[in-house]
Target: Probable DNA repair exonuclease
Amino acid sequence: MRHPETAPSHASCTVAVAVSRLAYRCGGSAGIFVRMDRLPCFTRLAQGQGAPEATRRLVQGRTSRNHEVVAQPLQFPLASRRLERRTPKGFECNNASHQPGPSAKPMTSIVQISDTHFGTEQPAVVQALEDHVREHRADLLVFSGDITQRARRGQFASAAAFVRRLEADGVGDTLVIPGNHDIPLYNVFARLFTPYGNYRQHFGDDLEPVFENEQMLVIGLNTTHPRRHKDGVVTARQVERVARRLGESDPGKIRIVVAHQPFGAMVPSDLSNLQHGAEPALQRWAEHGLDLVMGGHIHLPYVLPLSRQYPGLAREIWMVQAGTTLSTRLRGTSPNSFNRLKLHPGDEKKVCVERWDLSAGRFVLGSHFNLSW
Ligand SMILES: [Fe+2]
Model:
């Protein structure tokens, strides 16, 4: 529904963005668009407040064609001013500070893979990931959905065999959740009556597994639904269940929620891909000590402090997004990638997030960030 107070400025925003688009088509630079990004009307649009659909599509279409803009985070100016006073910033990860001393316990690590879309996987990339795990190992493998391309039995069988090989190569435990592609799309009967039949056959009946040890609590959420094509939704029941589980756990543990669709957007074109119900869920979970949410879905890896997008959060919650790990379904200039999280639980908890990118047939360290609270 259009917000009555914003309608006139959105009309002018539509004209302004159209001018930007025309300038771009005539050979203008991305800078024109970036300046448009600073217009108050654009900010309201980006925050989804009363955006006319035509304007939203115009902005989204313009953005998705520009990889330089895609590489920059969405700006929420009012929120980010508060952020400087209220929350710590992410900083470049100093890997040296993350090496355990001689008497320290071995570091706990999570490998997050996502959106493998088996059926479109690349055998050489599958091999590269197995080589990485054999060399570096991991305490936990988090698989954040879109395991398959079309939820077919053979695609799940290939994916399950791949996970078993990773476990044999050096993964301690595995936590898997479904994505929207893991429900049949064309087989309407299966979609209506046994939407998770093939998933369950290969990955078990539990669609919302939980993993907990001395260092971490990882809560999986199924945010897919057979009646929704792509969108994810967090229900009130899920919000309360997660809040209760967070409240019962040791505050020194790293507390994580994994869901397929993202809770925070990096670029305007992804605002329509956010979880339905994201804001009230995050508000509630922040009150109960959530540290981090992990997701996939949009094939764009990034790390974001969610208090920029949701200024009322009681504490910082970091968003760790994974790209597509194995699939040919690459987005823009982002290569195949996965995340490796190194956990430092305790009074001064820290997490080092490494993104490993495919380059020349092998996964190499692409970026790293230290997260703190
Ligand atoms: Fe996907």
In short: Residues 151 and 297 are 15 Å apart (CA to CA).
